[in-house]
Amino acid sequence: MSVRTPATPLVRRGLRRDLFSLVRAPFAGATAPFYLDPAREELSALAEGFLQRRGFAFVRGATGCGKTRFLHHVCTRPDDRAVQVAYIPFGMFKDGDLLRAACRQFNLEPPFRKSALMRTIQEHAVSLGEAVNPILVIDEVQLMSQDTLDALRLLTNHRFEAANLFTVFLAGGDDFLHRLHLRRNEPLRQRIGACWQLEPFDREHTARYIRHHLKHAGAEHDVFDDQALSRIFDDSRGVPRLINTLATAALEAASTAGDAQVTSAHLDQAAKTLLQRQEASPRDPQPL
Length: 288
Description:
Elements: H1 17-20, H2 38-53, E1 55-61, H3 67-75, E2 82-88, H4 95-105, H5 114-128, E3 132-138, H6 146-155, E4 167-172, H7 175-180, H8 186-191, E5 192-198, H9 203-216, H10 226-236, H11 240-257, H12 264-271
Parallel strand pairs: 1-4, 1-5, 2-3, 3-4
């Protein structure tokens, strides 16, 4: 049943936080702790264990499933050992540009030559010893050129070291799996010690995810009715980014109507302003 508040004399567009008892906008950036369904909780534990031994790991998943947020959660968890994280968000960097970006992320002055860049980063990792774990997070890795991919692999070679100097998290789409099976990338594929896949939420955890974000935004009542929650799962197929988009648009539609609870009618109104996904997601290739 829709809960209505007294009409306001002015037409107010956008999200009305007063209607929903919100102190901040939900579904916006890292405003709430990362939501862990059972699958993500298990992967998080595996990733935290992987940090202890370092090396390469690949986090795969469809667009919008939260790979970047997942790795941010893993890399910022409290631990006995300190970490230094270099996050490279753009996989289309040239090899020299990627190394310069890594230098800056590690607060190092980047030299001009590529060989000097690589040596600077390697020597920095050596200087940290075992007490500090240098982590490279490379996003959208499926877009990376072959030369840049080769440079990333060579970066982890240093003085015939038996132990891994870095933890390297590669995040991207399933296209990257096909590249790993090319003969040229066999040395890199053999180095990847873990491959994890982030799946969309199921119906139950789509609803819990929405309530989680609303609770941390200050909501004190059930903002979405059960039918609306189920409808969002049907329309988003449990993909977190699409859930965020649909839920935010529905909140704005309810705001415009002056309603303090979101219903399927508000989702109908919101759908008019959103691009509809008409193609099913592609099949996942075989895992490594």
